[in-house]
Design goal:
Radius of gyration of chain B: 22 Å
Strand order of the largest sheet of chain A: 1-2-3-9-8-5
Order of helices and strands of chain B: HHHHHHHHHHHHHHHHH
Structural class of chain B: mainly alpha
Low-confidence stretches of chain B: 1-6
Distance between the termini of chain A: 64 Å
Strand content of chain B: under 5%
Radius of gyration of chain A: 27 Å
Strand content of chain A: 15-25%
Mean pLDDT of chain B: 90
Oligomer: heterotrimer
CATH architecture of the largest domain in chain A: Beta Barrel
Number of strands of chain B: 0
CATH class of the largest domain in chain A: Mainly Beta
Low-confidence stretches of chain A: 195-204
Shape of chain B: globular
Largest sheet of chain B: none
Structural class of chain A: alpha+beta
Number of helices of chain B: 17
CATH superfamily of the largest domain in chain A: RNA polymerase II/Efflux pump adaptor protein, barrel-sandwich hybrid domain
CATH topology of the largest domain in chain A: OB fold (Dihydrolipoamide Acetyltransferase, E2P)
CATH superfamily of the largest domain in chain B: Formate dehydrogenase/DMSO reductase domain
Largest interface: B-C, 62 and 60 residues
CATH topology of the largest domain in chain B: Formate dehydrogenase/DMSO reductase fold
Helix content of chain A: 40-55%
CATH architecture of the largest domain in chain B: Up-down Bundle
Helix content of chain B: 55-70%
Chains: A alpha+beta (230), B mainly alpha (408), C alpha+beta (302)
Order of helices and strands of chain A: HHEEEHEEEEEHEHHHH
Chain lengths: 230, 408, 302
């Protein structure tokens, strides 16, 4: 503790003030470094602006959404129409084949419902409800590319008889909850998209080959699987 | 393509639903057969008997403690590093509830749980280390050594543990479904958070102040009148880093809990915490330089202990500072997590340096922990991890309780 | 009887302060520390010590400890010995560089410091500086944290690691005997009058007198006069103290003072902390509400 001796204190104090001043001076460039330069900030801002917003993807009010991006619409009796939402269409882009279950097959909520294929790879989607398949959209099987234009209407996939509708719908999102969920999904998506990828095509729409392909061309099925929870 | 699982009708009961996560006893026991559990089981199989042996035959039979080295890794690691790494509780609670940064809310509960369990197992470690552990309550209820920093630490830790328990109680009440209790506990949150921060400032710095009493025994590069300040600032760093590490691990291990739940942007949270950590580390680095200047110890850097000090200063303080900064800047969650892991190790190294490595550095007999001390430490850590997992699997820590979803 | 407000407050004030003054029976905080000149102390003149170890024998006998090892055997001095849980005082032999034929013998035990680090460090006040002077150990309070061992610059407190119910062991200045007017066992037993017991101030006078009267015999220093704030056991020597195993780097400030700043800060943090933090909270809440207000006005997303 010699520096606390009176005479030895002078050089020690000089060193300390030098260090403290250096800190203050160096802190400014350090802070700027941590926050990123203007260019990096601008890139980040662009990413935020360019990332899909919740209102890019239709989330109709009257539908019930499963976090795996399947939707369910209540019909009469215990019937429920099931399909895949706008987001999942745009995620997948052009789908070459849809593998739907047969009539009479049993579905379980949160388990695999059907599969989507593109070239050699395929991704599963989860069923939003428990029940038995009573009808299948033949057009979905024959010409899947037409589905994306009307995902909630003509693009329906299955009709399912759901015995425990109330219990199932407790786990589904609707209305405001569904919209908040979609916002969060968009944030997640926005985190993965860099504006350099040129996600936006000329007319401000989305590329035909799907967002998953844009994010990771060789492993798009894994990217899609992350969002579809499969 | 289709699945046809048959579900047997299940009779719901409270223990089955709350404790066995809805599984039957047989199903639950079968689900326990995992590699991690096998290793944990082995550790407990050896460690618990060693702990029993320590209590039956005394400290001398189990530890390498000596008259010159009265404190070993049970104090250096279990208590000192444990308290520092549990600091995420007060740091995150302060961030969310006092600074109002709501975007960090998803990690507040895990941070408080880490704090709660951290302090709990610090006390366990203390019970193993004390010569007469049944007298642990003495500074609280029997005899007050008011001149002692350790007395103040004892009181602060007791009060802070109470605060942590109350801060964690809403989670428990949600799990139990006791809505009235949960509402009451949530109402006092701000008061708890303020108390928690104040108490943490006090005891984190006081744990450092303990070592002010040993100027002749601790190497001059580590001994400084500013040790309390160092311990406090490094506790913030430790807390932030531990939350980053724990969040990263939880989101991989418990990801099935997050399926189907509205899940927040953990990446942005990690980057934000990393940025904070880099700034605090930057200040801490300069504080350490000030300490060297104040002590007039520059020449000592050119000695073996000096080199080790430089390893701590440059490798575990300056380097993570820049890794955090770079990671935050380039938005690389991976880099921030790596920096956090490095920092956690660095805090442990620092605590061990002051209490064991640089302590009695010039003495003839140096302390090296015995295998039994290491086993006991490992056992306590394992118990902590198992408890953490048990709670996270059952209570709404990582996920929101279904009844409260969207109710923010 | 009409009691007006001022009189009532005066009464309350007087009674409460009187009550506080009464305090607990062992009002350590309220007692005034006696001036160090008046406390009981010990002067050990190492030039008079012949290494007979009668002090060790007497100490062990008085404290119920086992007989000292290798009594009567000079080989016991070949290795440096420290005090032990079962040996509160030991005598060690050191070579005198100026006089090869006559070694120096030094008796070590607790220094009974004026401001003991151990007593300051103990969270349960198991180690206590008595007003009479000696630093005593109250075994019924000790929980075995061993902080006293960390704090003591002389490394005196020893721990019974091998026992299932361990205690700290050290010299107690024969406090029981002393309170009955007797001398500590070691002082009574010494055949060479190397150990003198008396008031600290008087012992310092005696020591200084010896140095002045026989200047060639002693180093001009009384170890313990100022070291670590002053000790109750002080030494005279012909050999420089650093060569006799005495810690040379203790400074003149007691170690107990080293934590006084930290402890003093505690009540201030307790009083300043909460208002400061609540102010931050209020400020942050205010800003959040203003931001929300702003976004609502701009017709933010529903």
């Amino acid at each position: 503790m010699t520096a606390h001796d009176f005479l030895a204190m002078y050089p020690a104090k000089a060193e300390e003030y030098f260090i403290a001043l250096s800190f203050l001076l160096l802190f400014i460039p350090f802070w700027r470094f941590v926050n990123g330069t203007r260019a990096a900030e601008a890139r980040a801002e662009d990413a935020r602006l360019a990332s899909p917003a919740a209102d890019w993807f239709a989330v109709p009010d009257h539908l019930y959404f499963h976090p795996g991006h399947a939707w369910a619409r209540l019909e009469d009796g215990n019937l429920v129409t099931v399909g895949m939402d706008d987001f999942s269409h745009k995620l997948m882009g052009r789908v070459s084949a849809v593998g739907l279950p047969e009539v009479g097959a049993h579905l379980l909520q949160g388990e695999k419902g059907w599969s989507l294929a593109q070239d050699s790879k395929s991704v599963d989607m989860l069923s939003p409800v428990d029940g038995t398949v009573v009808a299948v959209n033949e057009r979905a099987m024959s010409s899947p590319a037409t589905l994306s234009s009307d995902p909630y209407g003509e693009g329906w996939l299955l009709q399912v008889r759901v015995p425990r509708l109330k219990a199932n719908s407790a786990s589904l999102l609707t209305g405001n909850f569904a919209r908040r969920w979609m916002e969060e999904v968009c944030q997640e998506l926005g985190g993965r998209i860099s504006p350099d990828l040129g996600l936006l095509s000329q007319d401000g729409g989305l590329p035909v080959e799907g967002m998953a392909r844009s994010i990771d061309p060789s492993n798009w099925d894994q990217v899609a699987g992350k969002f579809l929870l499969t | 393509m289709t699945t046809t699982a048959e579900r047997r009708p299940v009779v719901p009961s409270w223990p089955r639903e709350k404790l066995l996560m809805g599984l039957s006893l047989r199903e639950y026991l079968r689900s326990l057969a995992t590699p991690f559990n096998a290793v944990a089981g082995l550790i407990l199989l050896i460690g618990l008997p060693v702990i029993a042996y320590r209590f039956i035959f005394g400290l001398g039979a189990v530890t390498n403690l000596s008259q010159a080295n009265p404190w070993g890794i049970w104090i250096g690691f279990d208590v000192l590093a444990g308290v520092a790494l549990a600091a995420g509780g007060y740091v995150l609670a302060g961030t969310v509830y006092l600074f109002g940064l709501k975007e960090y809310r998803p990690v507040v509960r895990p941070a408080i749980l880490t704090g709660f369990l951290g302090y709990f197992f610090v006390v366990v470690g203390l019970l193993v280390d004390l010569g007469q552990p049944w007298r642990l309550p003495y500074p609280i209820v029997f005899s007050y050594g008011v001149t002692s920093v350790m007395f103040e630490v004892a009181w602060c830790v007791l009060l802070y543990f109470t605060v942590l328990s109350l801060e964690f109680s809403p989670t428990v009440f949600e799990w139990l479904g006791w809505e009235k209790a949960r509402r009451w506990a949530s109402r006092i949150t701000i008061g708890l958070v303020v108390s928690g921060v104040v108490l943490s400032i006090l005891h984190q710095s006081s744990l450092g102040a303990l070592f002010l009493m040993a100027p002749t025994k601790i190497h001059p590069l580590w001994y400084s009148p500013f040790i309390p300040l160092y311990f406090f600032v490094s506790s913030i760093i430790a807390g932030l880093s531990m939350v980053i590490v724990e969040t990263g691990l939880s989101h991989r291990i418990f990801q099935d809990q997050l399926r189907g739940q509205a899940h927040a942007d953990i990446g942005a949270i990690t980057l934000g915490l990393g940025k904070a950590a880099s700034v605090v580390l930057f200040s801490y680095f300069f504080m350490k330089l000030l300490g060297i200047a104040d002590g007039g110890n520059w020449k000592l850097l050119n000695t073996p202990y000096g080199y080790w000090f430089l390893v701590e200063l440059l490798g575990f303080i300056l380097l993570p500072c820049f890794l955090f900064a770079h990671g935050a800047r380039e938005r690389s969650v991976k880099l921030v997590r790596a920096a956090a892991a490095m920092t956690v190790v660095g805090v442990v190294v620092n605590r061990l340096n002051i209490s064991v490595i640089a302590f009695n550095w010039a003495g003839p007999e140096r302390y090296v922990p015995s295998w039994m001390e290491l086993t006991v430490t490992l056992t306590i850590v394992t118990l902590g991890l198992l408890t953490f997992r048990w709670i996270v699997n059952r209570m709404p820590v990582l996920r929101e309780h279904p009844a409260r979803r969207g109710a923010h | 009887m009409k009691v007006n407000r001022r009189a009532f407050l005066k009464m309350v004030g007087a009674t409460s302060s009187a009550a506080l003054m009464g305090g607990p029976a062992k009002a350590r905080a309220g007692r005034r520390a006696p001036r160090s000149g008046e406390t009981l102390a010990m002067l050990i003149d190492t030039t008079r010590c012949i290494g007979c170890r009668s002090c060790e024998m007497a100490c062990n006998k008085a404290n119920g400890l086992p007989t000292p090892e290798r009594l009567g055997q000079p080989s016991v001095f070949d290795a440096r010995r420290a005090t032990r849980p079962d040996a509160f005082t030991v005598v060690n032999r050191y070579a005198d560089p100026k006089n090869g034929r006559k070694p120096a013998f030094v008796k070590s035990q607790c220094m009974h410091c004026v401001e003991p680090a151990c007593a300051s460090a103990c969270p349960v006040a198991a180690l206590e500086k008595t007003p009479e002077g000696p630093v005593v150990y109250n075994a019924e309070r000790c929980m075995g944290c061993r902080y006293c061992m960390v704090a003591c610059p002389f490394g005196i407190p020893k721990y019974e690691y091998e026992k299932a119910v361990p205690y700290v062991r050290k010299c107690s200045f024969c406090f029981g005997r002393v309170r009955q007017g007797q001398l500590p066992a070691c002082a009574s037993a010494c055949p060479m009058k190397a150990i003198t017991v008396g008031k600290r101030g008087e012992l310092l006078e005696i020591a200084k007198t010896r140095i002045y009267q026989t200047p060639g015999r002693y180093v001009r220093h009384i170890y313990g006069e100022h070291e670590a704030g002053g000790t109750g056991v002080m030494y005279l020597s012909a050999v420089p103290f650093a060569q006799l195993g005495f810690p040379a780097d203790l400074g003149t400030e007691s170690h107990a003072q080293l934590t006084s700043a930290s402890l003093a800060a505690v009540p201030f943090i307790l009083t300043l902390g909460p208002p400061f933090l609540l102010a931050i909270h209020a400020f942050a809440k205010d800003r959040a509400e203003a931001a929300q207000q702003g976004s609502k006005e701009r017709g933010g997303a529903s």
